[in-house]
Amino acid sequence: MSYLKPALKHPGLPKNALGFTRRDYEGSISTLCAGCGHDSISAAIIQAVWELGIEPHRVAKVSGIGCSSKTPDYFLSSSHGFNSVHGRMPSVLTGANLANRDLIYLGVSGDGDSASIGIGQFAHLMRRGVNMSYIVENNGVYGLTKGQFSATSDKGSKAKKGAVNKDEAIDLVAMALQLGATYVGRSFSGDKAQLVPLIKGALAHQGVALIDCISPCVAFNNHEGSTKSYDYVREHNESVNKLDVILGRAPITTQYAPGEVTEVTQHDGSVLRLRKLDEGYDPTDRVAAMNYLAQHKALGEIVTGLLFVDPDASDLHAGLGTVATPLNQLGDDILVPGAAALEKLNAALR
Amino acid sequence: MKPTDISAPSYFHKVVDCQWACPAHTPVPEYIRLISAGRYTDAYMVNWESNVFPGILGRTCDRPCEPACRRGRVEEEPVAICRLKRVAADNKDDVLARLTPIPTTKNGKRVACIGAGPSSLTVARDLAPLGYDVHVYDAEAKGGGFMWSQIPRFRLPESVIDEEVGYITNRGGVTTHYNTRVDSLKGLLAEGYDAVFVGCGAPRGRDLDVPGRKEAAANIHLGIEWLASVSFEHVTSIGKRVIVLGGGNTAMDCCRSARRLGGESVSVVVRSGFEEMKASPWEKEDAMHEGIPILNFLVPKEVLHEAGRLTGMVFEKVKAEYDARGRRQLVPSGEPDVTIPCDDVLVAIGQENAFPWIERDIGLEFDRWGLPKLNEATLQSTVPNVFFGGDAAFGPKNIIWAVAHGHDAAISIDKFCQGQDVADRPDPLVKMASQKMGIHEWSYDNDVSIDLRFKVPHADPTESLRSIKAEVELGYDRELAFKEAQRCLNCDVQTVFAASLCIECDGCVDICPTDCITFTPNEEEDALRVALKAPAINKHQDLYVADGLKTGRVMVKDEDVCLHCGLCAERCPTGAWDMQKFFLQTAKTTNGVPACASR
To answer: How far apart are the CA of B107 and the nearest CA of chain A, in angstroms?
Structure first.
């Protein structure tokens, strides 16, 4: 088995604004099963970060435990990383974000890590609005323990050996909308044309962004009767819009009929240009998004695309009124102001 | 775009760039792998099958394979294919027992080969094992032809020629008639040969026609004749100041030989620019490395002489101008003429075919350039039992082309002698074999080395300039040869795609280190080429298109810079990608089956 990817690359590989090729954003070779959807998501993350021209050292990738949480090893090898405890990525990432708000935070998790053991952490991170991109690599199955149903398995779907799931599924997208997430999307590992811009938009978003990415488990959940197989998702995929993320003042090269395109300018100046695939869909209306999701779920459709975005999102730092400078750039005198300052603070609370 | 027909042998053959470019279609990656495995004798035999003279070619081949090598497109330089061939020859054990046996029972057919150069000897090698009684005629005292008479010994030791010529002439079935010049084709045909092969080369050196040429004739020599005289030790010295005219490989051999025979100030003068010279880049490099300047854009104008003695040459300075159709013209630059004093001049400005010994009344037709009219595939002339090959066929080429002609002519002669249709050519032998050993294991070494090309060790220049016979290139030792062999990308291990097994998970697309694979809606080739993950701009390389996928898209693989690393197949969950070794051997009469019985 190959454990190194050859360093030789396509001679015509383009470079981004920083002079890096996409290959410079790769990690070590994946040890996941061949055909795993997670590898496609890793490739999409590499593509998105390369396209945005982000210096790798400005990214912190944090994960929990599981197949999904192994993947940060397979992309952005020059970025910061923390492979934390099962289901505890949100708290570790929240702490890191509070200490250094200048980094770009990427949380990578799975359906077990986020919807089972870590569901409490997931919920609180969403409602606090930590400025991060939260990617759930959702395969509906516990792959590392050989294929039991996970909390996101749909009711009625079949396991590889034929057992039928009797429990209701947790929909992380619906939860995130309900808990106040300000950028919510769903995608499919087999559709990079949709996934890459969605990740770019999330990375540019200044608030909590959730992407629930369906990622087929080839070893345990890609059979007839599964609702998270390549074939099933391709057949039932209902995309609401097509997203382009525009940074700076990129010229508009394509002409659209009026009403076909919605533009949303985010706080960092990035423009999300959405080409509507469903006429009536308004991605800035949270309640409508929740209704739409529920209606289409009843029809057996998997709604994908950028489902909700709040262009005026704020984050945890704004709520707490924290200092604008990362803690590692502050001097000891400011970080430890002394007994007198503590006394003053305590007095103010009496 | 139409889906690719991978069952056509030419498709995967083309992917093996080196083998495709080799006139004799030597299975290059196959023997390079054998060298890596230390199986030098086996590597030699793979070569011997295809190109007959591995030891000679490993030193002197024009190596059309190397510019074609895929490695040169993903990195700086191609694999040193030619010099690895020499490694196989240098390190092999005794191969006599492995050569195709020569039957004692003859088939009753007699074939004459005119000239004992590479094409004639190839014909002899290919026909003798089938029971033909082959007679080889040459005017010189031993076999090898041009390889012996004109390639200097410091590039090609005599022992190597003797050994490889001996494998053909000393094992029975072949009778040599050395020191025998064929003066009449009519006469030879009258001796009752069933077929005659003409492999006499292009023996006439082109001469110079400028004022003073005649007067100074004593010190002006035709390059190929002078080289032959040096080879036969009739000439052992030359003047201190030598001018070599011409920009081909013969000129390079002349100047380097002159340097060894007493030429202290040797320069090469060419009409064209340095870049357009016909000599191989490495031969130019070797000459310059020996302190020989190459002066370009100088056209000979006059030979200077005093009292019948050469004193120098005058050249007109020219420059290249291109007309609207891109044709080059050399026009006077207006600068003053250049005079170069010298004691000897070697003229190596080209070679010509000459057939004064072929009677014009025997039905053998020539074209307006004085070359025989031939069928390009069969090499048959307008006299049905006379065949041509090597330089005698289409003008001066090189050894490896001569060998390729020899194989083709042998097939033609065999078919002709057996009363078969000469135009009906036998198919190549093609084998495809999966290299899969386990889930992620391959029976070839799929690691891609990132080493740059290793330099071949050379003898110390001051030492090697002392003798005309001291070989300059020392060849790779085993350790260096292994490292260089590891640079080969195994392009013959093909990526074979089965759409019916594919679940379109993108695993191969994501892992491919050179962005070769794309799944996309089908389009016309031009549109497809720019729509791929990395645009396929090298139109000399094919796109591999497969349809039959569930989404209705097509799989498109740009063959251009594929590393054949097998990662696509390793990351494929369903075995839709497989790595299969493609082995192609062109049809030869010595494949064990006579050409006439191979269908």
So the answer is: 54
Sign (positive/negative) of CA torsion B394, B400, B404, B410?
Answer: positive
Contact B506/A230, CB-based, under 8 Å? no
**Residue B172 pLDDT greater than 50, yes or no:** yes
Q: Return the pLDDT at B438.
A: 83
What does CATH list as the number for B99-203+353-417? 3.50.50.60
Question: Which residues of A are less than 8 Å from B538 in CB distance?
Answer: none
How far is residue B220's CA from residue B544's CA, in Å, rounded to a whole number? Answer: 57
DSSP state of B573: S
Q: Which of A10, A23, A51, A74 to mutate to test the interface with B (most CBs of B within 10 A)?
A: A10
Q: In the prediction, which pLDDT does B127 show?
A: 97
Taking an 8 Å cut-off on Cβ atoms, the answer to whether B505 and A6 are in contact is no
- At A60, list the tokens: 């912190």
> Where do you find CATH 3.50.50.60 in chain B?
99-203+353-417, 206-350
Interface touch B505/A218, C-beta < 8 Å? yes
Q: Which of A8, A13, A231 sits opposite B563 (nearest CB)?
A: A8
Q: What ranges do the domains of chain A cover? A: 22-320
CB-CB under 8 Å, A34 with B573: yes
CATH class of B206-350: alpha beta
Is B312 in contact with B272 (CB distance < 8 Å)?
no
Domain A22-320 grouped into CATH 2.120.10.30: no
Q: What is the CATH number of domain B14-97+447-484?
A: 1.10.1060.10
Structure tokens at B402: 């001569």
| Candidate from A10, A30, A37 with C-beta closest to B505 | A37
The chain A residue lying nearest B559, using CA atoms, is A10
Q: What is the pLDDT of residue A213?
A: 98
Residue of chain B whose Cα is closest to the Cα of A28: B511
Q: Exposure pattern of A104-120 as b/e (b: 16+ CB <10 Å)?
A: bbbbbbbbbbbbbbbbe
Which of A6, A13, A230 is the closest to B505 by Cβ? A230
Percentage of residues in chain B having pLDDT higher than 90: 90
Which residues from chain B sit within 8 angstroms of residue A40, using beta carbons? 505-507, 510
Residue B165: both structure tokens together: 């010529």
Res A250: pLDDT = 56
The answer to whether B231 touches B153, Cβ cutoff 8 Å, is yes
**B509 vs A contacts (CB less than 8 Å):** 43
pTM of the model: 0.90
pLDDT greater than 90 at residue A97? yes
User: Which whole number is the average pLDDT over B466-494?
Assistant: 95
Is A35's CB within 8 Å of B447's CB? no
Average pLDDT on B84-97 reads 97
Facing B510 at nearest CB: one of A12, A43, A222? A43
Q: How many CB pairs under 8 A join A and B?
A: 102
Q: Which residues contact A193 (CB under 8 A, 6 or more apart)?
A: none
What is the fold, at CATH topology level, of the domain defined by B493-585? Alpha-Beta Plaits (3.30.70)
A34–B551 CB contact, under 8 Å: no
Per-residue b or e along A167-196, where b marks 16 or more CB atoms closer than 10 Å to that residue's CB: eebbbbbbbbbebebbbbbbbbbbbbebbb
End-to-end CA distance of chain A: 66
Burial string for B349-360 (b: 16+ CB within 10 Å, else e) reads bbbbbebebbee
pLDDT in tens, A308-348: 999 899 999 999 999 999 999 999 999 999 999 999 999 99
Tell me how crowded residue B478 is: count the other CB atoms within 10 A of its CB.
13
Across the interface, do B447 and A36 touch by the CB < 8 Å criterion?
A: no
Which of these ranges, A149-158, A255-264, B505-514, B516-525, has the smallest mean pLDDT?
A255-264
Q: Given an 8 Å threshold on Cβ–Cβ distance, is A39 in contact with B75?
A: no
